[in-house]
Amino acid sequence: MDFDFSFYLFLATVVTGVIWGGYLLILKSQGLVFDEKNEPVLVEYARSFFPIVLIVLLLRSFIAEPFRIPSGSMMPTLLVGDFILVNKFTFGLRLPVINKKIVELNEPKRGDIVVFRYPKEPSVDYIKRVIGLPGDKVVYSNKQLTVNGIPVQQVSLGRYQGLGQGEDMTGAERLSENLTGVEHDILIRNGTPTVEFSHVVPAGNYFVMGDNRDNSNDSRYWGYVPEANLVGKAFFIWMSWDWQDKGVGFSRIGTVLN
Asked: What is residue 185's predicted lDDT score, i.e. its pLDDT?
């Protein structure tokens, strides 16, 4: 099992809950009344922290979880230093730590920006855009996507001007892509070699790609994302910080992701 922050948060909830609850049970068995003035220091800390870590655990596990974007693979949609919120319940409710789904809800759609556990190293979270659903035939040739025989429409928006930690993408071509109704921008470096392929997505899996098409480690290189690896859907930028470009990116705060 890969231990992550959720595991330690769950452990903290259990430990503080056991200490506090156990102390109350001991008092009850001895016919004593709880008195804050006489409680041991360890119990005082447990009583104070238990509700806090419990609420954080429930929010992160079932409502929304914050993530920071560490790379430029989703440029220009997401920049290095963006802080995003990920909807944890839209694809079904999962138990923390063991990630077992207990409630079935929605399934990912083409164009959704999803966070998932990297299949080759599940302790690492990746973020990409869903391109192919189970059963879809996805073709990528000459940097043009085709899904189920229909070329994905692309409109050039000119040259991209990168800033801060994304400055190295300056000069790439920026295109507006319409992925079966979901419009978003992508970056292409013309002349850069890429992987061409034709795949039919197997049942229970998803084909994902980064919006920065020539600078993304995605399904083209390591395969599909199993449904069990999905963490949630990215939907909101709540903070953006790039120390190489004016610090806080106020214009990006509050951006709803498409």
From this structure: 97
